[in-house]
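Collaborator request log, item 7. Partner lab (contact: R.S.) asked for a structural prediction of Germination protease to inform their binding assays.
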Amino acid sequence: MNSFNSLHYHLHTDLALEARDLVRGATGREISGVSEEQQTFPHCSVTIIKIMDENAEKVMGKPRGTYITIEAPELKFKSPDVQQSVADVLAQHLKNLLQLTGQETVLIIGLGNWQATPDALGPSVVQNTLITRHLFQHMPEAVENYQSVCALAPGVLGITGIETAEIIRGVVEKVQPNVIIAIDALAAANISRLGTTIQIGDSGITPGSGVSNKRAEISYQTMGVPVIAIGVPTVVNAALIAKTTLETYFAKFSQGKQHPVYIQETITDVFEPFHGSLIVTPREIDDLIQNAGRTINTGITMAIHQKVPQEELQALI
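Returned to partner:
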């Protein structure tokens, strides 16, 4: 188990689905305190993982809660039909987590750096969010069937000099939302998940944790209101690519008998000049961000404004 803990520490993933696979691969057994449910849809599959106790939190390296992973390989292509289909699935699961009655204020937070494309998913979603909070005061008749929504892209510490969590706390104190939806770019362990996987979680989020730049947590414990996190992997640690390559090689030529600890030592030696922090993103990242951002924005809009006809929402977004 010690060998796994070391490996898990160096080869981090933001996805609960991948964390589960890493633990299974290292221990060879199911994880106590973790449940799993599978669903299949026309353009995507869904895995719902629930981390239910303290032991499961430690083993998985993630806080207790529900993690819904939508895998949609076709999302990498600019297909309106695929995006709408995935957005419908996202909206349904988001509705179940939000449990809105129609009287709440929703604060949407776009985490990340709008100046760095792989980290610009959150700001991209906020830029296209349907904002209504101000209209309830100035044009209440126009938003009769809508939910009160406000949004913010607070930037990153290196640009603002202020911790993101501090900015959000200040806004929460003033606006007093009933729930926060935080969107952020994630780090994955598998290259094929970049831009094609969406994770929804109800336990909050720690910005930058996937790229070794961990910032203050944004959660119910720190904000005082529920925080739903939505993320899409946009980067992979280069060490994970090397690990996958070596494991594939050994599996093919040595029947997989090489111990993972030796693989990790080799990877550490190779990436020593980068202190283990070399991050890789695909060259088509602009398109991936645009496709995923549009899908998430559509899903969030449908989940929040449930009383508004879909045709009307489509015209607005």
